[in-house]
Structures are given as C-alpha cells and as structure tokens.
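Subgroup meeting minutes
Present: P.N., E.W., G.H.
Scribe: E.W.

1. P.N. recapped why we're keeping a running log of single-chain structure predictions: easier to compare across weeks, and new members can see raw inputs and outputs side by side.
2. G.H. added today's entry (108 aa).
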Amino acid sequence: LSPEEALGLSTTLRELRDRLRLTILMIEHHVPLVAEVCDYVYVLNFGELLTEGEPEAIQRHPEVIAAYLGGTAESPAEPEAADGDTVQFASEPPEWPLLAEGKSNGTA
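Output recorded in log:
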C-alpha cells in the first residue's frame, strides 16, 4: 500500500470499528498501519507466537526487530564489518512512523 492508501484504510477501519462497535482482526505486515489501527498486537514468526502487547511496546521488542528487520536479537558487543571496521549500532531501536501526525498509538 502507498502511504495515502494506508492512511485511507486506517481511517476507514477506525470509523467502522467505532460506528459499528466492531472488533476487527487484522493480519498484516505493514507495521505503521498495524500500529495506527490496532490496540493490541500478536506477532507471529513462521507460524509461532513471538510476542504480544500494545503496538508501542511491540515496535521496541528486540525479537520483533530481529525478525522483521533482519539480524538477531542478540548482537556481539563489538561486531566487525566486512572491511574490519567496528560496526556502530544506534542506542535505540528504529522508529516506525505512524500514519497520522501526532498519533501516539493505535487507539482512536
């Protein structure tokens, strides 16, 4: 989905949920869309439950980052690059942007 399509879908899903008082089960890999729409998330990795929780906590979970961004949940203290240089890691996990500006989580 393009950013515009994802924003439109998230708006439509939240409106339907609120107007019709529905529970919606979403199966999706588009992390910003999931974070925008969902109140609670279950993360599967190859069919096995990896973790569950609120979107903000899930986005910072080391195993989720490893499964969906590559790498491993644990890294050596001073990994080396292919050219022998030391690799620097950010102190914080990456931020996945939310669809609507100013939105802090998936609640409407």
